[in-house]
Write a structure and sequence with these properties.
Elements lengths: L1 H16 L1 H9 L5 H4 L15 E6 L9 E5 L4 H4 L1 H4 L9 E11 L3 E7 L3 E10 L10 E12 L9 E13 L11 E3 L5
């Protein structure tokens, strides 16, 4: 009996020890927001709001208007195919799509705050050696945020405010941190 008890304690102790390692793997997952924002760790850059589950380039341009619209659970896979499989435990919540048009290939957006009245989106820009925003690279893409509301108090009337974040470390000649993939996922899902 003592052997089994010792073995169980060792097993549970071992599981506890791996918690920080598991957290590190989640944070360093190439699809995680934390990797997307890794360039900005030394800055006081805005971070994603905890209600944001994904950020993705949209392959399909549909008739959903720009801005916030409700999104049925079964439609998530259309916009966020990599994220959809992580959401089975979230079925009881409401989901929203914040769709936007991006016309500068040098930028990406972070939905840093959302509540039932307002969403604040920061558009990240690289800067040149003099600290000025880089010349835009013309490109038209549609990107969207997947937002979760488990309180059931939000609707499509949430206003969206855009702000600018000019990075001090991301330079014009640097590769865009989001250029490697088209879908980013909240570490809370991974």
């Amino acid at each position: 009996m003592k052997k089994y008890l010792a073995l169980m304690l060792f097993f549970f102790w071992g599981c506890e020890e791996n918690t920080s390692a598991d957290d590190d793997l989640v944070k360093s997952n190439p699809m995680a927001f934390s990797v997307l924002l890794g360039t900005f760790e030394k800055e006081s850059a805005p971070d994603f709001d905890s209600h944001v589950l994904a950020y993705a380039k949209l392959k399909h341009f549909d008739d959903k208007p720009l801005g916030i619209s409700s999104l049925a659970f079964n439609d998530i896979v259309t916009y966020f195919p990599k994220t959809a499989s992580f959401l089975l435990k979230h079925r009881k919540c409401s989901f929203f799509l914040l769709k936007q048009k991006k016309e500068d290939a040098n930028t990406f957006d972070v939905l840093s705050s959302i509540n039932s009245e307002e969403a604040i989106v920061y558009r990240f820009y690289p800067t040149n050696s003099k600290g000025k925003a880089c010349n835009p690279k013309a490109s038209v893409d549609h990107w969207a945020f997947l937002i979760e509301d488990c309180s059931g108090t939000w609707d499509e009337s949430i206003s969206v405010t855009y702000k600018t974040y000019e990075s001090t470390t991301w330079k014009c000649e640097d590769v865009a941190p989001f250029a490697t993939q088209n879908e980013w996922i909240s570490p809370s899902l991974l």
